[in-house]
């Protein structure tokens, strides 16, 4: 194969990877509305917070974050939600490691981590955020739940 | 027990070198006269992926390069990350590069180039977009029972 064709093919692969990356970055961290009306079962989740089991949802909004073992962005995502939680008393953040909880991964159809489900005060799923949430996604979500 | 922590910029620096080497591999692999060189390069990359996958990215030669040449110029990182996710990515890289080696040895035309291109896309996304293979693939592979 001549040199020009080879260079063009390599450039083509680089271009393809760049387009994929841009699409991926755009899609990540956006909230998708869910109309399933799925009620989250706290007992089944088995979530703990500061060593104690979580028994109540946030008074206004709950961010239920699913994490896994090989997830680099889960930690920073948890920190962002933690700050939100500290900022307002009616916001709750729950993090569940589903590395060994495939039942939960199947039930909530989790493919990537972090995936965050946004729950209303009764624990009904309102939307889901795949990947690290974008700043405006969080503001939108919090705005939706202003009482 | 605290999980081992690393500077998250280290693996991204390493992925940039890997992506560049894979681009060269694709270029060399496309012509019969340089195919042997492409294969040799892919073998080296497969070996490097194996080091990262088995011993962790902190034992990888690129980590040493990063520590001695790059990090002193960057200053301290704002946050640290778990060492496990990049190690998972190295294992995926090892698998894909290994497939390329096998395809080449089996005489499959452009098998080497196809594998190098797949590995290139992953390491390019990792380096440029901070794409995390472990976040995207681990759970899916587990649900499909590809890994336990």
User: Which stretches of chain A are poorly predicted, pLDDT < 50 over at least 5 residues?
Assistant: none
Mean pLDDT across all amino acids of chain A: 92
Estimate the strand proportion of chain A: 15-25%
CATH class of chain A: Alpha Beta
Order of helices and strands of chain B: EHHHEHHH
Protein chains sharing the most extensive interface: A-B, 35 and 31 residues
Give me the strand/helix succession of chain A: HEHEEEHEHEEH
Helix content of chain B: over 70%
Strands of chain B, total number: 2
Structural class of chain A: alpha+beta
Number of helices, where a helix is a run of at least 4 consecutive DSSP H or I residues of chain B: 6
- The dominant shape of chain B is globular
The gyration radius over C-alpha positions of chain B equals 16 Å
Q: What's the architecture of chain A in CATH terms?
A: 3-Layer(aba) Sandwich
Query: What is the radius of gyration of chain A computed over CA atoms, rounded to a whole number of angstroms?
Result: 19 Å
What is the CATH topology descriptor of chain A?
Glutaredoxin
Q: Could you tell me the mean pLDDT of chain B?
A: 93
Query: Roughly how much helix do the residues of chain A carry, as a percent range?
Result: 40-55%
Oligomer: heterodimer
Biggest β-sheet description of chain B: 2 strands, antiparallel
